[in-house]
Amino acid sequence: MTEIRAVLFDFGGVLAEEGFREGLKAIARKNGLEPEEFYNFVTEYIFECGYLTGQTTEETFWQGLREKKGVKGTDEELRSEILDRFVLREEILQLVKELKTKGLTVAILSDQTNWLDELEKRHHFFHLFDHVFNSYHIKRSKREVQLFRDVASWMGLKPGQVLFVDDSPQNVQRATEVGMKAVVFNGVDELRGVLLKNYGQVRG
Q1: Does domain 6-17+87-199 match CATH 2.160.20.80?
Q2: CA 168, 124, 135, 34 torsion: positive or negative?
Q3: Helices 19-30 and 35-48, packing angle to 10 deg
């Protein structure tokens, strides 16, 4: 049985509802834009403009969207559409607590911005984790395969000792390329089953 010493969680779509996607779609609808197309555009733009990796400011990001897509609203109104939709999932946080009690390292790896810090101020969940790796602060994104190897190293582990959980198949693929164990998140019950069947970490 593979020895897993750490479980690395994505934030939006795993630890919390996917506020980024749903918030952007709400903004699109309010501005007469096609929601899926707008979401896909912003997913690329937030990376390309440097906001995702802390290279530019939130103000610059929103102003760029106004110029490129004609989005209306103040920065505060627009960010609220996203932040208010990041609802923490208590059942997955309970699993995090159980894993930590069993002696595993638990950590967050998220392509996020200063919004993750804002959500911490609202909900106070960072204390549940041994590490929080936020692209905005580490200046690197999960689009970079090497990041997964480095995150394992920062935790004092080899990639094969880390299980990565993300709702993005692309991110899961990148993690496996460096030797991490990784699963696509499809709900906490399925994740518990994977942990029990493959790693023997969660019993009951």
Answers
A1: no
A2: positive
A3: 120
**Distance (Å, whole) CA 87 – CA 73:** 23
Residue ranges of the domains in the chain? 6-17+87-199, 19-83
Residue with tokens 């582990």: 157
Q: How far apart are CA 125 and CA 16, in angstroms?
A: 11
Instruction: Give every CB contact of residue 188 below 8 A, 6+ residues apart in sequence.
Output: 89, 91, 92, 95
Query: What is the greatest pairwise CA distance in the chain?
Result: 54
The one-letter code for the residue type at 75 is: D
* Distance of alpha carbon 95 from alpha carbon 116, whole angstroms: 20
CA gap 191, 187 in Å, rounded: 6
Cα angle 120, 123, 128; round to 5: 75
Q: Which residue is associated with the tokens 């790693």?
A: 199
pLDDT digits (tens, 9 = 90+) for 66-86: 999 999 999 999 999 999 999
Cα 185 to Cα 172: distance, rounded to the nearest angstrom: 10
129-153 exposure pattern, b = at least 16 Cβ within 10 A, e = fewer: beebbbbbebebebeeeebbbebbe
Torsion of CA 35, 38, 44, 47, to 10 degrees: -90
pTM assigned to the model: 0.94
Tens-digit pLDDT profile for residues 6-27: 999 999 999 999 999 999 999 9
